[in-house]
Amino acid sequence: MSDTETREDRRHGPVTILFGKDGGKYPEGNSLLVEGSRETWIVDPSLGVVARKEALPRVDRVVNSHCHEDHVAGNHLFPDQPWHCHEADAVGFRSLDDFMAIYGLPEALEPAWRKSCVDLFHYTPREEVERFADGDLFDLGDVTVRVVHTPGHTRGHSALVVAWGDSVEERLVFLGDIDLSSFGPYYGDAWSDLEDFERSLRTVRALEAGAYLSFHHIGLVDRVTFEERLDRFATKIVLREAALVEYLDEPRSLDEIVAHRFVYRPGPAPAIVDAIERRSMGMHLTRLLARDRVEEVEPGRYLAVEA
Ligand SMILES: [Zn+2]
Fold this sequence. Notes:
- It is a single chain.
- By secondary structure, this protein is an alpha/beta fold.
- Helices cover 30% and strands 20% of the residues.
- Helix 6 crosses helix 8 and helix 7 (254-260) packs across helix 8.
- The radius of gyration is 20 Å and the shape is globular.
- The strands form three sheets. Strands 1-2-3-4-5-6-7 form a seven-stranded mixed sheet, with no helix packed on it.
- The chain has helices at 21-24, 47-51, 96-103, 110-119, 194-205, 223-247, 254-260, 271-290; strands at residues 9-12, 15-18, 31-35, 40-43, 61-63, 83-86, 130-132, 137-139, 144-149, 158-163, 171-174, 211-213, 220-221, 294-298, 301-304.
- Strand 14 (294-298) and strand 15 (301-304) form a beta hairpin.
- The protein folds into two domains: 4-235, Ribonuclease Z/Hydroxyacylglutathione hydrolase-like (Metallo-beta-lactamase, Chain A, 4-Layer Sandwich); 248-304, no CATH class.
- The model has no long low-confidence stretch (mean pLDDT 96).
- Bound molecules: zinc ion (ZN).
- Residues 66, 68, 153, 177 line the site of zinc ion.
């Protein structure tokens, strides 16, 4: 099969899902075209959209669920249209330096990542983008899009509820990177927050719709599958924390926790994996210390408190 044959377009109501290769597997993703009677939007234009650039319809606006490399990879195809994102992520579009601050990588790793974001993901700065906030409602003509702020993955990460009628079946929720993958929630960046992510999982669970779409992995699913996958996804957080408590049955340092691996599988991996593991499990450690479930028994060494 050619590249284009593995990138399916599927229509659902006024939404056309531009699936990335292999169902939107990273570095690609599943982008949306939302067509109202007055306006057409493209949401999270991915590398899969870049591959389709000769065949795209005219769009009026670009809307980003958050400011991450794979979600903004096609923004540069629309230099004359407004770009929209949540007010908390807007600064990421201003410059490559501002964009890098979202990830907060160790100095040694940043130059290579900076280069990838430009060379592979076409990062293109824009001085000013349009900012939206939680609850904002846009009318595209017979179709509305409501913003639901769901921080945790990044500060401004937002889900979008597309509606084209009054019934639940006439609603689609775009989940962005609440991707329901077997990997589980990603909160490994400087702009990530574990507890915000947990709150956001509860927020999206309460959004009733006929269909749910994530940017990667699961694609388009119904309510029943969504609930099932969301619960499994949320459980990954609980399992990571329980595994950490178990590992701290003798005093360990954060370096040892990172080397043991709770988010990623053990074994050789690029250095960036250690950085993500450190940030993610550091958040679990901080929370366990605050809840007196772990104590610092000597400087930099942590031990689980017997229940
Ligand atoms: Zn992301």
